[in-house]
Amino acid sequence: MSEILLKVGNGELEIIEFMINGQFYGINVLKVREIIPINEVIKVPKASEEIAGLAHVRGKVSVVIDLQQLLCSKPREQYQHALGLLCEFNGTQVIFLVDYVEQIKRISWKDINPIEQISEKNLTIGTILSDGHVTVMLDFESIAIGAKIGKGYEAQGQKVQKNHRLKNIKIVLAEDSKAICEMLRCTLEEAGFRNIKIFNNGQEAKDYIYELKNQYGQEFYKKIDLLISDIEMPVLDGYSLTKWIKSDETLQRLKVILFSSLITEELKHKGMEVGADSQISKPSIKVLVEEINRLMGR
Question: Can you tell me where the transmembrane regions are (predicted)?
Answer without folding.
Answer: none
